[in-house]
What we know:
There is one protein chain. The protein is α/β, with parallel strands linked by helices. It has four domains: 112 residues, NAD(P)-binding Rossmann-like Domain (Rossmann fold); 178 residues, Rossmann fold; 138 residues, CATH 3.30.1330.90; 76 residues, Alpha-Beta Plaits, CATH 3.30.70.260. The protein has 17 helices and 21 strands. α1 runs parallel beside α12.
Amino acid sequence: MIEVLKILVADELSPRGVEILRAAHFDVTVKTGLKGPELAAALRGVHALVVRSATKVTPEALAGADSLQVIGRAGIGVDNVDVPAASRKGVVVMNTPGGNAVTAAEHAIALLCALARRIPQATASVKAGKWEKGKFKGVELADKTLGVIGLGNIGRIVADRGHGLRMRVVGHDPFLAPEAAAKLGVPLVSLDELLARADAVTIHVPLTPETRGLLGADRLRRMKPGALLVNAARGGIVDEAALHEALAAGRLGGAALDVFATEPPGQSPLLALDNVIASPHLGASTEEAQERVSVEIAEQVVAFLLRGELRNAVNAAALPADGAEPLRPYVALAGRLGALLGQLAGGAIESVEVEILGAALEPGAKPAGAAALAAFLRTHVEGPVNEVNAPLVASERGVRFGVAHRSSAGDCVVGIGISASGPGWSHRVRGTLVPYGETLEPALTSLDDFALQVRLGTHHLLLRNEDRPGVIGAVGTVFGRHGINVSELRVALSSDRREALQLWNIEQAPTDAALQEIRGLPGVRGAQHLAL
């Protein structure tokens, strides 16, 4: 009986997003407003959880999630999900970073324009029956300097819209190369320089331990006198008490806030200031964005559960959205090689090093490395290990892990080396894809010092023997006697020609009796069944 995968949608998702999940024949439950123990109980037996920003996915909620494989966040921010706790359980956390980028950027620009022209205050005055033209004098944005903190998907759109308003745009983003910023027409400057130069500052970074309190009292004092501040990213990035002091003292011209450290903000002193405008976390709140992120996260969850595709995973190396298909076979190859090495390894494992050769494979290097490590560890570790928690599992066991990529004019190749404390336990393998009929199949091309090319199937017999006549025939005779069909055999000799390595591609697992008989043959030094 095929298991029906269970999906819990814990926040409002568009009907089309729910339809996509149900069309994949999942058992979909929509139940919103779950908190604490209720959420923990609802997650038992569930394979995927889909949330927006309301549901808080805590370590306590995840503790009993015995079947959970993926958490899909319909939106960009994942601060409502405890990502480290999910990673420890091997649960993929996905978001939709581009789904609401235009909507969020437009809202930031709208807040800036409304703040500069004091539109909310003027609206309230007119609705109160007043006509105070002289009271609501604003400032022009044209020819002013706009400072954009964070040039990700949203920040780039804000910068583009700033250019459209004829503003001079500068940016700060320590993770963006100057060449990439130059293509956007945005000079990169330090955060302190941005604050000193900008007439208006807008924030577009996630809330992390590094960005919490990013604009505190000291940095707010460095802002240009009379400058405007817009925060439509996340509450907590700006120190609200320090901001209140700067605005009340008249050092800053005004602030537009879509987010607060605590939401709703209650009786925040900021809301009593006339030079503050606010909205209730509306950055992604358009019909188009809600539909888009719902559809995107539903499609991502389906692709992961049915085909193992990682898209926009925040806690795992994922293939790029464009051009992923040619890379998938190499990621699968890395997993096969990792599983092979895991069965050869013994002793205390000290390191696993993955090397990816070929310019075309650079975007897939990290996912391939994660696949290799996970497959390797699964042969040694009890409990679930996957591409998400494999680096953490390795680190906890004192195993060093590294992935390196090198451009190469030759074939695209995946190589893995392991070092271990015991004699004879260190190994290295290489593999590539080879034509087989009309398809490309994974193949082993070298094992330790032996060069050979054999297609990787499900079952193999690895045999080391003295280089002497009759060994191959004797092994084949044993296979025949035990009804084991052979599809391929490759033989390689050591450099001194004293030892041969045989790798048999067989159609079924050999019995213990067959293995014992082969190990007892004259000249055989060792035989091992490898299940891939």
